[in-house]
Design goal:
By secondary structure, the protein is mainly beta. The protein is built from 2 helices and 13 strands, in the order H-E-E-E-E-H-E-E-E-E-E-E-E-E-E. It has one domain (3-238): Nucleoside-specific channel-forming protein, Tsx-like (Outer membrane phospholipase (ompla), Chain C, Beta Barrel). The protein is 8% helix and 59% strand. Strands 1, 2, 3, 4, 5, 6, 7, 8, 9, 10, 11, 12 and 13 form a 13-stranded antiparallel sheet that branches. The protein starts with a helix and ends with a strand.
Length: 239
């Protein structure tokens, strides 16, 4: 897909996803994370994150951006814009059967400090007991800094709720596998989170979650043998 065409489509989707659309579902949150032991850069980091997700008449939309060390000099920014288009919604037909929920055309723009990547492909959504969602995305990945090359990427995202007494345990996160591209090695990144709905303790459920996120990265940024495992304390406020 040509970059200008991709950006035009993405701009249109962001506009319609955020203005005047009737949502089937919409949520947003802010997060604060703190960890130590990062590779390739500052060892200790604070990360502030904003996330937006919604589902509407054409598919769904996910957007986030991270500000790393937002309270000090040298703040870095990274974000992803991920519109997906539901085949079932577009043809107005229920495609679900057994654990299969829907087939989608999936796209992502990854951008930040000196980063620009385009991803596009197909996705499958599954319906599994206790899972709020389970999304499997299969991409062609094109890093704009690497000429005449591309690779494949698989991304899995999930969220599980388990009731415990008056509260809930939340297990959520994502897993990425990206193939080698240019002189970069294949790399695996995962960010599983284990959180508690602490808002339930003062009768404000599903508003505040806290716990730990594990940042796990093999061949970080495609650099061979640079591996990372960092537990991060995390607090999330949901709008």
């Amino acid at each position: 897909m040509k970059p200008k065409l991709y950006l035009s489509i993405t701009t249109c989707v962001i506009f319609f996803a955020c203005h005047g659309m009737a949502y089937d579902f919409s949520t947003s949150n802010v997060q604060l994370l703190r960890g130590s032991g990062y590779q390739l850069g500052d060892t200790d980091r604070t990360i502030a994150t904003f996330e937006l997700a919604n589902s509407y008449s054409l598919g769904d939309f996910f957007f986030f951006f991270d500000a790393t060390n937002p309270f000090t000099d040298g703040t870095s920014i990274y974000g992803e814009i991920s519109p997906r288009f539901s085949v079932g919604k577009i043809i107005n037909k229920d495609l679900s059967f057994s654990i299969f929920k829907d087939l989608l055309v999936t796209t992502t723009l990854e951008t930040g400090n000196d980063i620009r990547r385009y991803l596009y492909g197909l996705a499958i959504d599954l319906k599994i007991p206790y899972f709020q969602f389970l999304k499997l995305n299969f991409y062609i990945r094109d890093d704009q800094k690497i000429e005449n090359d591309y690779t494949m990427q698989t991304t899995i995202a999930w969220r599980v709720l388990v009731p415990i007494s008056i509260t809930k345990l939340i297990f959520e996160g994502f897993f990425d596998y990206a193939g080698g591209e240019g002189d970069k090695e294949p790399n695996i990144m995962a960010a599983p989170r284990l959180l508690i709905d602490i808002g339930s303790f003062w009768k404000d459920p599903t508003r505040i979650e806290a716990g730990v996120e594990f940042q796990i990265w093999k061949n970080k940024f495609g650099v061979k043998d640079v591996n990372e495992f960092v537990p991060q304390a995390m607090v999330k406020y949901i709008f």
